[in-house]
Amino acid sequence: MSSVPLSAYLALGLIxxxxxxxxxxxxxxxxxxxxxxxxxxxxxxxxxxxFSKFGVxxxxxxxxxxxxxxxxxxxxxxxxxxxxxxxxxxxxxVNIDEVNTLKH
Amino acid sequence: xxxxxxxxFKWSIMTPEFIILGVITLLSxxxxxxxxxVNRKLLGWLGLAGILGALISLLSLMGNGPETILYDTFxxxxxxxxxKLLLLIGAALVFLIAISxxxxxxxxxxxxxxxxxxxAALLGAMMMSSSGDLITLFIGLELLSISSYILAGIRKKxxxxxESAMKYVVNGGISTSIxxxxxxxxxxxxxxxxxxxxARHVITxxxxxxxxxxxxxxxMIFVGLSFKVATAPFHMWAPDVYQGAPTPVTAFLSVVSKxxxxxxxxxxxxxxxYNIPTEGLGSMPLLIKVQDYIAFLAxxxxxxxxxxxxxxxxxxxxxxxxxxxxxGYLLVVVASMSAFLFDxxxxxxxxxxxxxxxxxxxxxxxxxxxxxxxxxxxxxxxRKAPILAIxxxxxxxxxxxxxxxxxxxxxxxxxxxxxxxxxxHYVLVSIMxxxxxxxxxxxxxxxxxxxxxxxxxxxxxxxxxxxxxxxIGVCVFAxxxxxxxxxIALDFLQGNFNQFSDFFQ
Amino acid sequence: xxxxxxxxxxxxxxxxxxxLLFVPKAKESVIKTVGFLAxxxxxxxxxxxxxxxxxxxxxxxxxxxxxxxxxxxPNRLGxxxxxxxxxxxDGFSLIMLVLTAILSTLAAIASMYIKKEWKGYxxxxxxxxxxxxxxxxxxxxxxxxxxxxxxxxxxxxLIGKWGYFxxxxxxxxxxxYNGLGSAVLLIVIMVLFARTGTSNIEALTSxxxxxxxxxxLSEGGKMGLLIAMLIAFGVKLPIFxxxxxxxxxxxxxxxxxxxxxxxxxxxxxxxxxxxxxxGIFPExxxxxxxxxxxxxxxxxxxxxxxxxxxxxxxxxxxYSSISHMGIVLIGLGALNEAGIQGAIFQVVSHGLIAALxxxxxxxxxxxxxxxxxxxxxxLAKGMPITAGFLLAGAMASLGMPGMSGFVSExxxxxxxxxxxxxxxxxxxxxIILTAVYLLxxxxxxxxxxxxxxxxxxTDLRKAEWVPALVLLGIIVLIGVYPSVLTEPLTSTLxxxxxxxxG
Amino acid sequence: xxxxWIIPLFPLLSFLFLIFFGKRLKEASAxxxxxxxxxxxxxxLLVLFERFTSPTHKAESVWLTIGDVQxxxxxxxxxxxxxxxxxxxxxxFLVHTYSKGYMxxxxxxxxxxxxxxxxxxxxxxxxxxxxxxxxxxFWELVGLGSFLLIGFYFYKEEAKKAAxxxxxxxxxxxxxxxxxxxxxxxQVGSFEYDEIFAAVEAGAVSSTMITLTAILIxxxxxxxxxxxxxHTWLPDAMEGPTPVSALIHAAxxxxxxxxxxxxxxxxxxxxxxxxxxxxxxxxxxxIFAASIGLVQKDIKRVLAYSTVSQLGYxxxxxxSAGYVAGVFHLMTHAFFKALLFLAAGSxxxxxxxxxxxxxxxxxxxxxxxxxLFLIGTLAISGVPLFSGFFSKDEILIAAWAHGNTVLFWLAxxxxxxTAFYMFRLFFMVFSGESRxxxxxxxxxxxxxTVPMMVLAILAVVAGYVNTPWFGTFLGDWLTEGNxxxxxxxxxxxxxxxxxxxxxxxxxxxLAWLIYSKRSLSRDWLGASTLYTILYNKYYIDELYELTVLxxxxxxxxxxxxxxxxIVEGIVKGVSxxxxxxxxxxxxFQSGQIQRYGAVAxxxxxxxIVVFAVTGGYLK
Amino acid sequence: MTLSGEFFAFISLALVAVVGxxxxxxxxxxxxxxxxxVFTFVSIAGIFILLSAEFLAxxxxxIYSGAITIIMLFGIMLTxxxxxxxxxxxxxxxxxxxxxxxxxxxxxxIGIYNLDFGEVSTTLHENNTEQIGIxxxxxxxxxxxxxxxxxxxxxxxxIVLSKxxxxxxxxxx
Lengths: 104, 505, 502, 619, 173
Description:
The complex is a heteropentamer of chains A (104), B (505), C (502), D (619) and E (173).
Chain A (H helix, E strand, L loop, with lengths): L5 H21 L3 H25 L6 H31 L13
Helix pairs in contact in A: 1-2, 2-3
Chain C lengths: L4 H17 L6 H27 L9 E7 L3 H4 L4 E6 L3 H20 L7 H20 L3 H22 L4 H30 L4 H10 L8 H18 L7 H9 L2 H26 L1 H27 L4 H22 L2 H32 L10 H4 L1 H14 L6 H16 L1 H26 L15 H19 L2 H18 L2
Antiparallel strand pairs in C: 1-2
Helix pairs in contact in C: 1-2, 1-5, 2-4, 2-5, 4-5, 4-11, 4-14, 4-19, 4-20, 5-6, 5-11, 6-7, 6-11, 7-9, 7-10, 9-11, 10-13, 11-12, 11-14, 11-20, 12-13, 12-18, 13-14, 13-17, 13-18, 14-16, 14-17, 14-19, 14-20, 16-18, 16-19, 17-18, 17-19
Chain D lengths: L5 H20 L3 H25 L3 E10 L2 E9 L1 H24 L6 H20 L3 H19 L6 H32 L4 H9 L5 H18 L8 H4 L5 H10 L1 H11 L1 H5 L2 H22 L5 H21 L3 H29 L17 H13 L5 H15 L3 H26 L15 H16 L11 H7 L15 H22 L12 H7 L4 H49 L4 H22 L5
GO molecular function (chain E): NADH dehydrogenase (ubiquinone) activity; quinone binding
Organism (chain E): Cytobacillus solani
Protein name (chain E): NADH-quinone oxidoreductase subunit J
């Protein structure tokens, strides 16, 4: 049957998750941060879909779950960008480090 | 599935959700079609009526056994009812605060949205409390989160509000990713998203690798969700977001959203992870094994929340840290995993709801009046408005856990739960108590301002809006009532929810 | 005596609070009268209970019990994990109730020196009285704790708002120390409650007494709880080195508040140690007896030495309180009848004496605006009666026979000399030092050359006579006829001794 | 006799009445005081006469219950008590009377009488006490009375200091008494004298314990009776009104120490060490105080040191097993010393100074006081036929008989000193030139002189109740039925009496040579170091100042240091640490979004790694 | 693991995805980063196809490569997109973060490197879309409907927040 084992997919998911995470936590541009978060969600999707095929009880559920995650991700991005735009209007910056007036 | 099957389900158990959904629709349509000149506060009262309607319908649903629709994607067990009760009461009070919210630059244009986004968030929270399916829970969580992101940023001309929303959305996104990543493993190792099926599956688990992965998944889910309840290590966003967000939103985040987070944590933890054996059938559950980690996080949360609060000058920030600390106390409940877990959690969340919302109502009143969020604005409150000052004192005393208030009974519950188990969590309890004493410093700091310090200007007269008046009144009453006669609540719990025995059915 | 006698007694000051709600803020004399009157029901009721007890009626008839809080499922757990509203008294607590009621009434009179916001003051004052009365009437640890904490908040405000220059600091100091103390106490109580499912003192005593095989609590656990309890009450008492808050409070709070604070609140610590520490953990207490006695001696001498170099009379009294509380510990450490009885006597006696002395401080502070010894002197010239009372108070405090201080001191030492003669001998030094510092201070104030004109300064006013005379009267009464205390205490002591096995 | 307990109540009544209502009575207060003390005296006298015929009476009732132990209070009338009752009430009555004249015009007249009442009450109570505890109680109360009266002139700094000193010094002794008494209690199980004696006799108490408790109790006596080294308060106590000095610091209270030792005599005799201690301290104090008395210039101080010295005599007597001698001297001393003080008071009343250097030639002006003073002086000097002669002689014999040769000679020297300084005093005050500034010297009113006369008579005749010539009536009576107290009369070599007479006459002669006839230079000692040392009372006060006081003060300061820097320091440290932690935490909250996420993730990673490593899943 | 077409497909898709991710981290221009990520998203779609999730693959391309990327680009254009400077992040934080990620990845890796539940033949690839549709509209109707509320909320929110109403206010003044 399949020549690519489950673990390979999971490893890919893990790697992408880590990349996304690193990006989300180090990148300065808020847009990139948001995109990185999307990448993390996508990595989770890979897991879900992979489990859907190779899991304990293969079923369509995993794919459905992934679908919902995508919908959520889309909504989140939309809101994120909208907030960014509102912020940009007031602050004129997209640099995440400059968004630090609330502190201590 | 045809329509007939669809209609054969007992949709009536979803009445509260439908009511909220209906009101959301109604409000959005009304907002769209109503003339600009019409005061949108009307919508607020409408929304409040919706919440109260949902509350009534929820109460009427009480006392039945667990009912489920569509393979547990909706599930109404006593746990759900009990906690939804809190969510609805909290939301109703928040709504009252929101109706009286008058920020400087005006909110009139978005007031309609403001209200129904609250309702959307509430709907998400309600779904989080009454579903037995991971997907539904996740969607509920996201509905709550995304609505909250928008709410936090709804004062879009206010740079603090923007920043707060930005911080919220970025950190929320990360937390979502972490949670979903953990969930994907849980799904993968059980092959289902139905919590009870998962429980049935994992209970026979013997492969240590699977258990290990589930352990990792546990941590991811737990840390991801700790964002929602603002506990360590995912607590740092809270002060900034609370400070920047509009006060009603802060109140909402600190009470309703937090409650929902705990509901979700408890449900996932208790159903899935409590049933995972560590070494084959019948051995110690995984949850017990990681108990110490939770306890550690609880301790860290309490310490951070209470200690950093000492330095705060901004009242909203102060309450943010205070609510971190309170979340730490609640985490102690989770960490102790006693037989009293549900009762304790429910009672404390209830008490917390009243005392914190009451406090926020007063905070909103004062910050709005003076235009500053500095604690010093509370100076001389006793002179200017003695009743307000005494009400605030009641809330603060309750938060500090002084007898005679609901907060004390709640803490008593927590201590008992933590000590009644074997081995007892002496260290955790000690830390909790020690940090409580630390909290006296800042809580009583506010008291000192209100009662001891002279007011900067005695001119300011407080006009108490009806909404806030009701909130404060209800909260003072409830805080004292449940402090003096807690059995009203506890008997209610015992009498109507049958020890949450249907939780695992 | 019948239904809810104790409840009415304990909560009667609430009536005053309610009445005060309807009195306009500015009506000073009305407020003061109402505040004073509100302390009377408790006084009358407690005295009635005392005399009825003396005339042979049993105290058990006063017991009250109502279900209050039930944790968990009552069907499954039954009586376990239920907290009842249980009030009841034995001889010891009855005495403390009477003491509280008396001192509250007198302190209400002494509150005439309050200069501002009388309404708030008296409301808090009465709330404090409720807490204090409740502490002594509670038959149940959790209820005890609740009342214990209720005393905390009004005291915080009373110190912080109506005190002297550094009042806020003192209030915070008070709050944090006592907060910590009560936190530790809460742990102890909750551990006991969680382990045994009950917080009733008697039930706990019998459960732990029957627990010889350490099923409920390990030996170490019991010891730990006792030590924690000692720390908790040690803050209140205060035991060296947990005392610094108390000095501040004594100096900064207004005299009427200090009367209650020194008179009653500190005594809660001793009451707790005797009632709970000794009552619930008698065996462990025996192991700690030496430590307690040593602490007692340390307290006694430490307080005395420090009192010796203070220039503020209030500081002298504050350290003298520390020193005198050492005698309580000495008596407890002796762990025999004489010692324990001495300790209880000292609790009552010091309550009265401290109240008297602080009241007098209030009297002359009100007139002279200072309590600094070098600034005073020759008070006997201008205010001979005040000076006389002051001297009498000092005599009582330093253990002059014929006054209550002697009886308690004597019994405490009598007890300790039996068990640890050498330690007791060291402690006896404290008796000398007490005389030294008290005379130094009191004579410094009353005797010697007057540093000021006393023209226009009146001696004791009529209303001021009452507290001074009543307190001194009781002090002398106990000193001359100690049976007023010993007889009610007999059964309490027997119970304690039974637990200790002596 | 069954109602002997009423005796102390009269003065108590006087005290209570005067303290509450005295203000209105003003000087009429005196009548109340005098009347009530007279009542006491009369009653005491009745009791004494009754005691001659009937046995010891004792009545008690429970005072304090401690578990199974019941402490009692009551009264006992035995020989010693009865005798003391009379002495005390008599002197008290006389002083009450005398004071009416002496204190005339004082604005706190009634307070004075109230205090006198309080003191008399306490003293009579002390005398009647049947047990140690009660003794202790009244022991303290007499101290209180003494304290109040010494400090009567409270506005004088010296009076304040003296009062304080008196209280504290005696308290030091009292603590010894307290300890001794409590230790004894736990040995015997009772405070009752008879039970203690019974236990001691039965050997129920170990001998070390007897010695220890006896010495501790003796410390109490040392404090009260102004024995070395706790004597320094007594001379200072002369700051009080002079009648008070007569009553308290000569006749009664200071004798209480002697009385205490006498009461507990069987205990002391059970321990040779204890007896020896008493004797040595007594003898040493006798000569030590006498030597100081040689050079003092204050009339009352001279008398005070003489009191100390005489008390030493009494102690020596008791320490030499001379129970009768001690008590006998106590009695005679009470009379002649009270007389001397009252006479001195009369002098002071007349000349308004206490400095004997400023006096002189008063013999002619004070025609009553002078002779009375002389009688007293003769009595104290041990001139034959006066009371002092017999009692002192008794003491010397007791010392000799007991084998304390060294102490005996010390006592003899002290007797010489006594005679010398007393006559020095007499001559300086009464003989020689009258000073120019003493024109308006007037004899005291009869209310003052009559009491002195009574005392003078007693000072002469009191000795005859116990003489080797006319029978030892007193001794026989005192020791009757109580062999533990020793014999009523100790036989001694007759040369002792001669020696005593010779030394006292020698002393008088020397004093006459120097101070009256002035054939020897007055300044024979004036500039010498010895004089300075003596004048400064061997620098004992300074020594105490340097040692005890400094050490105490130093300890206090050290503890204050600990208080501020360690006790408070730790608290500050902890609160500082918490606050610092808060500061750190709040700084860490930098506002940077990603830091928050990073913290969360790193936290997660740590949890996971720890879980992986410790979970036991890695194979 | 046999060398098959599927294997090669996986390897190449995975490589593209990872490279895309790494480029995201290392490129300097924002637009480039977004484009790099498009590659990743597309290859993930490919992975989905390998996993018999054709419908998801299509959705992936539509949503991620299409919608989300476009939104991002809009976002970039609406804001200041020439901002390329990357101020130095705290090295310590990067290091800590890196260590954290390393530990995290390692912990997971040892859990999954040989995870295998055994092959069960699935019918996922047959009528994939229909299966999804049926499940979505029957079993998962509640979350599905809830998602619609979620999207509505996001829509409203996005409009409210990004609507530019400054001119209007300017007019008022």
